[in-house]
Amino acid sequence: MRWATDRRAVNLAGFIACVLMMAYALYAERVLGFEPCPLCMFQRAGVVGLGMIFLIAALHCPQGVRGARVYAGLIALSAAFPLYVSGRHVYIQNLPEGSVAACGASFDYMMDVFPLMTVVQKVLTGAGECQKIDWAFLGLSMPGWVFLCVLALAGWGVWVNARGGHAAQRASKAS
Question: What is the dihedral of CA 52, 59, 156, 47, to 10 degrees?
Fold first, then answer.
C-alpha cells in the first residue's frame, strides 16, 4: 500500500505548506508591519480552508479509489476560493491609479455593520488599500505569490490524490 502512504505524505506536506503560508502572512503583519486589506483576509481564510482539507485527507487517507478521488475534488474545490480572491487582488493591483475607489471601511467595521453577503460583495470589489503594493519579490506582489502557491498546491494535491486509484490498480495487477 505504498501509494496510500505517499498520498498521506503529500497531503501532510500540503497542510504544512499552508501553515507556512499563514505563518509568513502573520510575520508580515506582526513583525514587518504590513496591514492586511480585506482581500488579504479572505485569501488567508481560503488558505486555512485548503490546509484543513489537506490535513483531513492526510489523517483519513482512504484506501479506496473513490475516497482518494473525493479528496482530489475537495482540494480542487477548496483551492478555487483563494485562487479567485488572489487573482482578483492581482487584477485590482494592476488597474490604473485612481480607477479603484478610495480606501473603504475596515473589515471589522463592515462585519459589525453589514450582512455577510454585503461584506463579501464590498470586499471583492476592492478599495484603495487593496490596490497598494507593500511587498514584492521577483516582481510579484504577495497576492501573486499566494495565487501561484495555491495553484501549485492544488495541482499537486489533486494529481496525487486522483492518481491514487491508478497506482492501486497497478499494484494489484503486479501481485
Answer: 10
Query: Distance between CA 63 and CA 164 in Å, rounded?
Result: 9
Taking the CA atoms of 135, 141, 147 and 148 in sequence, report the sign of the dihedral they define. Answer: negative
φ and ψ at residue 173, rounded to 5 degrees:
-70, -30
Element (H, E) at 57: helix 38-60
**Among 156, 167, 147, which Cα is nearest to 13's?**
156
**What average pLDDT does range 114-130 have in this prediction?**
66
Q: What is the 3-state secondary structure (H, E, C) of 130-149?
A: HHCCCCEECCEEHHHHHHHH
Range 106-115 average pLDDT = 68
Q: The whole model's pTM is what?
A: 0.76
* C-alpha–C-alpha distance, residues 89 and 3, integer Å: 37
Residue with cell 497506482: 167
Domains in the chain: ranges and CATH? 2-174 (1.20.1550.10)
d(CA 62, CA 53): 13
